[in-house]
Amino acid sequence: MVTEFRIRFVKCNYIWIPKRILQRCTCDEFDAMLGQVLLSLQNLQVLHFICWGCRAERARHRYLAELPTKNLQKVMFNCVCTSQLPSNTYQMLASPCMAPVMSLSLFDIGAWKDCDVLSARSSLPHLKKLICSDIKPIELLFSKQTITHFSFFKNVTDFDPLHNIISRASCSLTYLQVYNLQHTIPGFIAKDSAPYRSLKHLGDLYYGRVVVRDFSELFEQA
Description:
- Helix content is 20%, strand content 21%.
- By secondary structure, it is α/β, with parallel strands linked by helices.
- The protein folds into 2 domains: 1-129, Leucine-rich repeat, LRR (right-handed beta-alpha superhelix) (Alpha-Beta Horseshoe), CATH 3.80.10; 148-222, no CATH class.
- It has a 9-stranded mixed sheet with strand order 1-2-3-4-5-6-7-8-9, with helices on one face.
């Protein structure tokens, strides 16, 4: 009985061979076979899906919205093959098979068309842990009161939009990880410390490593 499935979908070999040898891309065929496998996993609980496939002219992985499992708890999704196209990732996340998911990681998920489906009450109603690298899905998913763990995996120069989202959210964060912690969090707390007072863990994402720092002194002057 398969309960955990991890796949790293890499580019097919045609891009690496000399140009004088003609070979068509086989990513679509592989994706179709992968879909047949995933659609047979009725007891799936953990899905790690990393796609580095060749750039597609149409969206792939549509089968992810039709998974037969009713026990999915953890999903990690990273796709670059359709990063320039309107993504069907949002329909996938809003599908019934994703309703039990409690932990979600999203990276490189394409354009923002139709992403408003994430704010629906029926979308990911049990979500507690969110790891993400884009602001738009964060803004929509933070409308849910259930999120307690959050990691923002993107090093940006302006963190104010992220602070504004956290401040407006009704969820109570106990776990937070961001880049440049020593420069971002003190400013956040100076503006509004209330969203951060329930934190039990504050991690600094530093060149791929997580550095846990003592943050209690940050609240002394707040």
